[in-house]
Amino acid sequence: MLGQPMPLLVPQVVGVRLTGLLRGDATATDLVLTVTEILRRLGVVGKFVEFFGPGIAKLPLADRATIANMAPEYGATCGLFPIDQETLAYLRFSGRSEESIALVEAYCREQGLFATADAPKAQYTKIVDLDLASIEPCVAGPRRPQERVPLSQIKKSFEIALPSLAKPKKPDAVTADATADPSLRHGSLVLAAITSCTNTSNPSVLLAAGLLAKKAVERGLASQPWVKTSLAPGSKVVTAYLKEAGLLPYLESLGFYVVAYGCTTCIGNSGPLAAPISRAIEERSLVVASILSGNRNFEGRVHPEVRANYLASPPLVVAFALAGRIDIDLETEPLGKDRAGQPVFLRELWPTQAEIQAALAAVKPAMFKQAYATVFDGDSRWRGIQVPQAATYAWDENSSYVKHPPYFVDMPATPTAAAELSGMRVLAVLGDSITTDHISPAGSIKPDSPAGHYLVSLGIESKDFNSYGARRGNHEVMVRGTFANVRIKNLLVRGSEGGVTRYLPGREVMPIYDAAMKYQADKVPLLVLAGRDYGCGSSRDWAAKGTRLLGVRAVLAESFERIHRSNLVGMGVVPLEFLPGDSAHSLCLTGEEVFETLGLLHFLEAPPAHRQIAIRITRPDGSQDHFAVRVRIDTQQESAYYQHGGILPYVLRSLV
After folding, report:
1. Given CB 3.0 to 4.6 Å as the disulfide criterion, which of 48, 154, 253, 300 pairs with 487?
2. CB atoms within 10 A of CB 453
3. Is the peptide bond before 343 cis (omega within 30 degrees of 0)?
4. 3-state SS of the chain: helix, strand, coil percent to 5?
5. Is the pLDDT of residue 172 over 60?
6. pLDDT (tens digit per residue) in 198-257
7. 2, 108 in Cβ contact below 8 A?
8. Residue 198: strand, helix, or coil
9. How confident is residue 452, by pLDDT bands cut at 50, 70 and 90?
10. 194-219: buried (b, 16+ CB within 10 Å) or exposed (e) per residue?
11. DSSP per residue, 352-408
12. What are phi and psi for residue 283, nearest 5 degrees?
């Protein structure tokens, strides 16, 4: 990254031995959700995962890619498959030149990376066995990719989860008025999206979705009117082969029109729900659901008004759109009624393997070559952008989208000497499995949020706010959205939901951004307390950037996800880890204490073998206590980044 080496601690390698063959009713999505559940339970953070065994021969490359792509969700550093003839066949099929394919094969054989029958058996830290024949149709939700639920249990699972998902009803709540959709209730599905993750570059599941849509339309079924549907393929090739197979019109008949080629619903870019639906959700405090064929369904990520979010294969996304609700047993309950008034069940619409194989004939190598021949050219609007000819970027002071970042402002030529962190106040006390989506800004910008107030101050109307993703080049927007997730629960403010905190030592409650700016004005460094798996999810750079810009100097958690831990160090934030058995709860930490590191300076000069330092806390009554923590600056290179204030100052100083 930025031309710097990326040192890693030597990882453990977990082997997943695949045997058997997928059932006819199981998809690659069902397989990857099962793998995610198994590996999350096993614990593979910081480890490599390699898939091997006789079952691989029956998995097409697209299925392998679906599994490998979800490594962040099961926590591994990477998910690996052997390079073999199937790999070369895919390169050839997707339009790569014979010269490139020959180079790949020669290199991989020379390096011992090519799978052959006589290759020596690899040695793994641990081996997990998975019979592909055991994979059954499933979904994952309502909050995490590892929360796998067999399709037959989804109704029961939702009913069990409902109390924990429900928003406390307002005392003055009333029945929805005539303009609020009266058909909605707990469990109603309001978003059904075939999204642009690896699932939507896998022809077998996309063609299965099209075949299911075809059968549904032919029987007279339609998506329920309160379901907002969309199709966002990962590639224009998808549109080409859906058209070639004659299936795109059927998807469109059910509302699955192509809306974009990129991240949409999965990252909160589905746009607003219809006003009557939004009013019904708000007025009746409804727990409504979304279902998408993506990788991530973390709290607050998909849509701020949708409290239950599920992952599923593309054909199941279509099926649930027909049903219009998530609390349905698709094995025993019909999706709807046909033109003759007869019930139609999922099993009647599900495409056979023979039908899918026949449809796969529509996927042709020429489609890849045509789609990617001009992939970097852009359309006429892109080509028409006037680009100044200069060695450096010409910052537009009036732009609300791209703003000169503050990382190098008043930066000295040499780094300030490292020091202990003292006088740290706690900005937030968080629980387990805090994801980068809880931390990093994503989705729509609310008018009453700190980011919304900032944009209004620039004279921008709320209809033109766009999204955090679109404005990620403006740090003023992004820092105001850090820790502002609508579902985050800061235990400093008991019973709260959303990005608020207490400004200590008092009891005043305010937005996290506002409190952080008050602390900065008083030159008070900040700390975040958290539980297990802090920073899980996708590698969101703003989860670390926003944390640092808020003035957070350290995060003390029970454990870290690998990517976010590395990103924190890269922004000059110290990841500190409780020792095994310790936690904020066991040490009676409320977040009202003042924290100080003892030994950090010595650690940076010569890291001890045990990598431990002490933390001294001063409680509100003036009493003090000590406990040991582990510093998760794992390599000398990371130590250098931290002492420079992060990787960006380090690189700039190296260049100068």
Report:
1. 300
2. 15
3. no
4. 35, 15, 50
5. no
6. 666 789 999 999 999 999 999 999 999 999 999 999 889 999 999 999 999 999 999 999
7. no
8. helix
9. very high
10. bbbbbbbbbbbbbbbbbbbbbbbbeb
11. PHHHHHHHGGG--HHHHHHHHHTTTT--HHHHT------SS----TT-SSS---STT
12. -70, -30
Count of H-run helices and E-run strands, the chain: 24, 21
* Chain length of the chain: 656
641-647: average pLDDT: 95
Which helix (H) or strand (E) segment holds residue 547: the answer is helix 541-549
The closest alpha carbon to 541, from 578, 568, 579, 512, belongs to: 568
d(CA 270, CA 302): 8
Over residues 333-338, the mean pLDDT reads 96
Residue with tokens 């090519």, as numbered in its chain: 114
Q: Are strands 138-140 and 148-150 parallel, antiparallel or unpaired?
A: antiparallel
Q: Is the dihedral of CA 407, 413, 418, 419 positive or negative?
A: negative
11 is written with which tokens?
């990882």
Model pLDDT for residues 250-307, shown as the tens digit of each residue: 999 999 999 988 888 888 888 889 999 999 999 999 999 999 998 989 888 899 999 9
CB 313 within 8 A of CB 27: yes
Peptide bond into 142 cis (omega under 30): yes
Please compute the mean of the pLDDT values over residues 497-519 and round it to a whole number. Answer: 96
For residue 344, give the nearest of 354, 333, 353 by alpha carbon.
333
| H helix or E strand, kind and range, residue 289 | strand 289-292
Over range 564-584, report the average pLDDT: 97
Q: At what angle do helices 636-643 and 647-655 cross, to 10 degrees?
A: 80
Give the position of tokens 């944390």: 547
Give exposure, 412-429, as e/b (b: 16+ Cβ within 10 Å).
Answer: eeebeebeebeebbbbbb
The pLDDT of residue 181 is 65
Contact 27, 62 (CB under 8 A): no
**Which is nearest to 452 in space by CA: 433, 438, 432, 466?**
466
Residue 459 contacts by C-beta under 8 Å, 6 or more apart in sequence? none
Owner of token pair 């910008």: 445
pLDDT-based confidence at 379, cuts 50/70/90?
confident
pLDDT at 287: 97
Structure-block tokens of residue 43: 């614990």
Q: Rounded to an integer, what distance in angstroms lies between the CA atom of residue 224 and that of residue 222?
A: 6
Residue 18 tokens read as: 């695949």
**49 in Cβ contact with 128 (< 8 Å):** no
Where residue 180 falls among pLDDT bands split at 50, 70, 90?
low
Q: Which run of H or E residues covers position 36?
A: helix 28-42
- In the chain, the amino acid numbered 418 is A
Residue 44: phi, psi to the nearest 5?
-125, 20
Closest alpha carbon to 548 in 568, 520, 563 = 568
Position 118 confidence tier, pLDDT thresholds 50, 70, 90? confident
* pLDDT average, residue stretch 633-648: 94
What is the pLDDT at residue 176?
A: 42
Q: What are the tokens at 515?
A: 């409190």
How high does pLDDT run on average in the chain?
Answer: 93
pLDDT at 15 over 90: yes
Question: Do residues 316 and 33 touch, judged by C-beta distance below 8 A?
Answer: no
Structure tokens at 112: 């011992």
